[in-house]
Design goal:
Blueprint lengths: L9 E6 L2 E6 L10 H14 L7 E6 L10 H9 L8 H18 L3 E6 L2 E3 L1 H7 L3 E4 L4 E3 L13 H8 L1 H10 L2 E2 L1 H7 L4 E2 L3 H16 L3 H13 L5 H17 L1 H11 L13
Parallel strand pairs: 2-3, 3-4, 4-6, 5-7, 6-9
Antiparallel strand pairs: 1-2, 7-8
């Protein structure tokens, strides 16, 4: 099992193959500082090759998921003199973009539990998760344009999640909406009232993920993410090669045997340590 990094702004708990990653800056509604971005990168790097980690559950401490980027860090970056070789503001933006890409590219199933503020960068993180569970009174929004800035790094993720026409509307109107509207837009998959219902839904999702082979999940996510980057003929060829490797691989052979023997495959047996 992966050795997790020491973190100050993230609370990490790994049990039976489920990594609970909690944004832990409740005093700032879990706004993402540069230090938190670095801890996110380190955490996902630590589990990148570990197929015993099956699910990553993202949540925020103190009743809020994430209120976006840290305005204080942005202000400090803006105060650094701009030169031909240094742009601290652009560096902060790139760090945020790399974090979004890292979460998006994670081979594990990534599940978000969304409560309270899901704004700006927090909205972007929600858009690159595989399963999103929201409280009905969540406060979603893209407030950047109202602050005179752009949701630059998260805009592609929002478009991919809910489509161009809805993303453009939210971008130009600084849209604010709740969990029910997020579900209607296709941003979240489930809306649950109260902690008990959220935990029940999470347990169901984790149980469903466990029935799926970890490398097959990773390969499926990669194919889906990259399908728009290739021509149809390239998609056919890439899919054929991935499919053939899966059939011949350990998971394909184990899955076939388990089906014939009418038993659960080994990856679906809950003993992840």
């Amino acid at each position: 099992m992966a050795d997790l990094p020491q973190t100050e702004h993230l609370a990490l708990s790994l049990e039976q193959g489920v990594l609970h990653l909690t944004f832990n800056r409740p005093e700032a509604r879990n706004a993402m500082s540069l230090a938190m971005l670095e801890e996110m990168q380190a955490t996902f790097a630590a589990i990148a090759e570990d197929r015993e980690v099956r699910v990553v559950v993202l949540r925020g401490a103190g009743g809020h998921f994430c209120a976006g980027g840290d305005i204080k860090d942005m202000a400090r970056a803006r105060g650094v003199p701009l030169s031909d070789t240094q742009d601290a503001v652009a560096d902060y933006s790139r760090a945020f973009g790399r974090m979004i890409h890292t979460v998006d590219a994670a081979p594990q199933a990534v599940v978000a539990i969304l409560e309270g503020a899901v704004l700006g960068g927090g909205f972007g993180v929600a858009c690159v998760t595989d399963v999103a569970i929201a409280a009905p009174d969540c406060k979603f929004g893209l407030p950047e344009t109202g602050l005179g800035i752009t949701p630059a790094q998260i805009a592609p993720a929002v478009v991919q999640r809910i489509g161009l026409t809805q993303a453009r509307r939210l971008g130009v109107c600084g849209g604010r909406f709740d969990g029910r509207e997020a579900q209607r837009l296709g941003l979240v998959h489930f809306v649950e009232e109260g902690e008990e219902a959220i935990q029940q839904r999470l347990a169901e999702v984790v149980a469903q993920v466990r029935r799926c082979a970890p490398q097959a999940v990773a390969d499926t996510k990669t194919l889906m993410r990259q399908c728009g980057l290739r021509t149809p003929e390239q998609n056919i060829d890439t899919a054929a090669r991935v499919f053939a490797a899966g059939i011949r691989g350990d998971e394909g052979q184990e899955g076939t045997r388990a089906f014939i023997e009418k038993r659960l495959p080994r990856w679906a047996q809950v003993d992840q340590g």
